[in-house]
Each structure stands twice: as C-alpha cells, then as structure tokens.
Queue: 2 jobs
Job 1
Amino acid sequence: MLAHIKHSLGVSARLSILLLAAMVLCKPGLTEERGCKTLTVSGNPEYPPLLWEDSREPGALTGVATALLAEILEPLGVKLEVKSLGSWARVQRHARYGELDMIAGAFITPERTRYMDYLLPPFTQLTVSVWVPKDRVFEYRHWSDLQGKHGGTLINNSFGQEFDSFAQESLDIVGVRTIEQSFEMALAGRVDYVLYERLQGQVKLQRLGLADEFVDLDVPVSTEGLFYTFSKKSPCNTFELRERIADRLYTLLSLGRLDSLISEYTARYMSL
C-alpha cells in the first residue's frame, strides 16, 4: 500500500504514515504469541505411522507427526490439543475456516496456500507409489502409462502440483474416505491401482494382513515434502511463533529424532 502513496506527500506526512504502519504491525497479538497457550491440531487419519486414529482413545489421533510436534512445542510453553475430525477432506475444511490452528502434515498445493501458511523445513519427504495387486502388475514407467486405467486414492489427496494437474486432465481416479476402501476396490477389480505413499502403504497393508497381496511399482509418482501448516485464520499464527517452531523443528531433525519416532510408532501401530 505504501508503494502507491503519491510522491506529492510531504516528508512529514510520509513519516507519519510509516510510523502508523509500524504501530499497527507491532500491536500485541500480531508479533507475539500472547494468549496462544494451546494449539488445536489435526491431520490425515489414514497416515500410519505418521498419524492414525487411536482406537483406545476415541476422537484422538496419534503418531510420529503429533509426537514430534509435542516435542517442538513443550519448551515453548504451548500445549498441544490433537483432534480427530474424521476424513482428510474434513480436516482441510476445518483449517480453511479457521476452526483448527494447524495441520500436522500436508503437501504444498496452490489451493492450500490460499488458506494455510507452511512451516519450513518439511519434517519429512514422502514417496508416492502406484500400488497394484500382485496378480495384476502392469508396465509403468511414466505417468502416461496410467491413462486408460482406473485408479483409487483418498478424497482430496495431493501428490504434488504437477502430478495433480496431469491427473485432473488425463487420469481416471476415484477418491474414497479410507485407504482400506481403495485397496479393497483393487482386490475386487474395481480399480486397477491405488495411489498411496510408500511408507504408509507398507505399514497399512501389513497391519491389514494384505502385505502379500500388493506390490508398489518401481517408479514413484512423486516425492514431496510434508509440512506442518498453520491456518491463516488461526489467532496463534504469528511470525514469531512460526519462527520458533521452525527453529526447534530444524534442531530435532538434525538430531535424527524423526527416524527414532518412525521406528517407535511403526511398532506401536503394528501391535494394535
């Protein structure tokens, strides 16, 4: 806005405007996380070992993503409140309307950047695979090899903007509420393949007793960074808090904490 101020304004007037802008930017709540004692967080409940709904605690999510976030927030004096909101599509709607402070794990898409701020660095990189029943493997080297086939995945799932655009224009992919449905549809021959992250697919299929029924094809669809994100409408979304979280995240990642948590929570999920 200041760039559009006419040059005819006098020095005093311009200084007054700059001072007013500085006062607005320095108002409590815009530059400090005062009053932000609790972060309400949710995420994709179909994402073990990063996130899943704990059957022993209805309405709660557990996993690597929230455990790491809790370790980040503890020394900052911010309490973590994790909620299970149902489907991944519903979680994103809550973030859009400011009914949720943060999402613990999202890929970047242009649509999501309109209502969420992404915290750097990503806390992990995930490879997305094409999963197929072992008795119906087909040749796959490029995205175009999926044309003419029917695919399945979660509703509102993203696998990188480039692939998402290609899929929207050229592929036939049905979105369902749970990834179990997608795998069941593949076994029944209703879809030819399932798009799902490699790590999550390995863990989920083993837990379902279907590890011997599926294979992930050699060439990945994409490899994308997974981020913590703030709803733009969250009152806790301040520059200072984002910076403090990012600093703690970088430190914990440098110490190898993520790998330890993946091992721990994979074992927890498999023991259910």
Note: The chain has nine helices and 13 strands.
Job 2
Amino acid sequence: MNISFRQLRAFTTIGRLGSFVDAASALHVTPAALSIMIRSLEDTLGFRVFDRTTRRVTLTEAGQQYFQHAEQVLIDLRHAELFAQDIRNRKTGVVRIATTQVVIWTLLPKIFAAFHKKWPDIRIEPIDVPNDQIISSVENNQADLAITFKVPVAGNIEATPLFSSRPHVVCNSRHRFARRKSIPWTELNGEPIIFIGRGSELRIRSELPKDIVLNSRYEVNNTSTALALAASGAGLVICAGYVRPMTQMHNLSIIALSDPVINRPFMLYRNCARSMGPAVEEHRSFLLDYFAKAAGACVEDVLLP
C-alpha cells in the first residue's frame, strides 16, 4: 500500500473542515486536484472515506475510523521532522567517548562543562575502558570516539593527533625525589617501580636506552591503586603527566622524567565506516580545537593547573 503524505494531509484537512473548497484553500491547491488525491486514496484503501453531497462533505463510518490513524501518522511525522531539525541544529544527540578512567577524571571535566554550555541538549556518555580495549570499542561501535596513546591501527579506524604527554614519576612526600623538578631516568635504577596496566612495562622499556634498568615491584590494573601504593611508600609510579590532579588527593609529588625526554602522542580515534552524526561531529571538532590550545606543548604543562 503506497499512501503519500499529501493524501493523508488532504484527507485530514477535509475531515476537519467538512468542505473540499475550504480544504483546497487551506492547502493552496484547487478543489479538482484535491478530489483527484482523495479518489486515489480511496482506490488504494479499498473503501470510501467521504460521503459527498452538493452541500456538505461528511466522513463515512470507515472514514471516521481511519481518520484517527491518519492524524496520528501526521503527528508522528511532524515529531520526526522536528527531531531531525533538532539533530541538524545540534539541539539533541548522544556522543559516546571511550577512554581511560584517568583521562575522564583529569582532562575531560572542563571540556564536558564547556561543551555543555555551548550545546546543552547534547548528551556526552564517557565509557571507561582499559587501554587494551579502547580501539576495539570504536571498531565494534560501542563508542563514537576514543582517546588513547598512539598505536598502530588498520582497516577503517582513523587516528587524529590530539595532544601529547610526558612520562612522570610519582612518589610520596617523604621520598628523596619529592622536591625535585625533574629526574633523569637513570636515577630510577634500583628503585621499586609500580607499573599501571598490562603491557605498560614493556612499552616503557622499549622507549628507553638499555642501560636504564627498572625494577618492577608491582603491576596493577588502574592508576588509583598505583597512587595508593605510592602513598604508602611501596614504590614509585611511572605515569603520564596529566595524572597530576589525581596525585593531589594523597599529597603525592609528581616529577617530570628526563634524559631522555619522551613526549608520548595521544590520538582521537573514530570508525570511518560509520557516518558521524551532527552531535558527534560537533564534539570531535570541539575536542580538536580545545587541545590545539596546547600548541604542541605537553598537555599537563598548558591545560592543567
């Protein structure tokens, strides 16, 4: 059954006004054109919707029953049209962004607040996932965007540079490093190290000269646990510089590592096989513009207190 929007609109307008002439005037068509539309509608439906005399037009019994459904369809279409308009105008939408708990905790709150101020009706849904699952979250469409360090990607995954961060060491306030502004990697030789996340130790070792020996004491799943261990004096944590706001909770010291200086790039990922909705496109542009303020410097040196 192929019934058009114009036919339904013509039918309901005549039903409300009780006149082909008045309905034709309201719809800006001729009465003859309106008659053709209604005749075509009746042919499609297989029953008459109006009883017509020279003086009046009334709905048939079948027409009265059909009228309610036709009006509801037009109401639903109008709602759909308004919703589409809201999407186009960024007045609604959901953006799912996958990253680590630490990035959500330290870097994103200001961004979410600034974005919400500009687009209050777009909902941001952060998805807290381990590092090794972030890329797969955009591959399998669990997330629209993802933020993590630079890794090789294939297929439809697009990676756009977002910011960089430098490895730091975290210790408790009683440690001999606590008042230092920077520490050469070689001074970590023999110190008990707390690594965060599976594979982090191998990744860090691959970036360092072979004469730097790191003594792995713990490997933990999350930054909160690592910082709690550092606060207890169990060891030193190697982490990205943007972790700084979290270190304040335990009165920890966070010190930049040098010789060599490592600037680790972080990327914004998306799945090019999926079209970005207006809300996702807007938030992606917002993220890129926000982190562009760092102008190539490490994010913790420019965008964090």
Note: The chain has twelve helices and 13 strands.
